[in-house]
Amino acid sequence: MKIYIVRHGQTDSNLRHACVGRSDVPLNKTGEEQARRLAERTKDFEVSAVYTSPLVRAVNTAMPIIGIRKNVKLIMNYGLTERDFGLWEDMNYREIEEKYPAMFKKWQSGGYLDAPPEGESVEDMQKRAGDALDKIIAAHEGENLLLVSHMAVTRTILAHLLGLESCQSMCFCLDNAGIAVVEYSDGKGILTGFNI
Fold first, then answer.
1. Which DSSP category does 164 fall into?
2. Residue 93: how many CA atoms within 13 Å on its side-chain side?
3. C-alpha dihedral over 90, 146, 77, 125, to 10 degrees?
């Protein structure tokens, strides 16, 4: 099976380099255009289902993809939702450093795995996304799928599919509306395309 992993289109928060997790920010004009072009780029991908995070930036990235397909369902899955940044939601690094200097220093020196205040740890996010991915794959064994999600979750999905350690997920950085392609069988994945 082929699994196409897509990061949502651009938002104004992305331009500010903000930590946007559960904040339900919309696509900006560039992101809307990226979603339209993404639908065109993926029109020849044979997929049985399109799964998306329920956040509006992911849903609105997925909608044009669904719009050009007949008999393909759009399925929202909470497990594909971005990491919860708690009190750091929609703040950029400069803002976090000013408001939470000690926590930010720890975070920058490797503590990024820990939960931000009132947020979600990387471990919890990886478990949530990994469990969701395993259930999605089990429900569509042998079928091609397209998943629309967010930066941290796309990293997690790639590491999970490729059998990498969770800390190795930081090696991946999908662009807004970027696509990664994994050929997956017998519990093993091969990365065959990245930021296509």
1. -
2. 8
3. -50
Contact yes or no for 154/191 (Cβ under 8 A): no
Going by C-beta distance under 8 Å and a sequence separation of 6 or more, which residues neighbour residue 72?
A: 47, 48, 49, 50, 66
Neighbouring CB atoms inside 10 A of 133's CB total: 24
Could you give the CA distance from residue 149 to residue 58 in angstroms, rounded to a whole number? 6
Extract the tokens encoding 134: 């395993």
* Whole-angstrom Cα Rg for the chain: 16
Please give the Cα distance from 61 to 148 (Å, whole number).
7
Query: What CA–CA distance (Å, rounded) separates 38 from 149?
Result: 14
The model scores a pTM over 0.85: yes
At 20-38, the pLDDT tens digits run 999 999 999 999 999 999 9
**Per-position DSSP letters for 54-98, written without gaps between them:** SSHHHHHHHHHHHHT-SS-EEEE-GGGSPPP-GGGTTEEHHHHHH
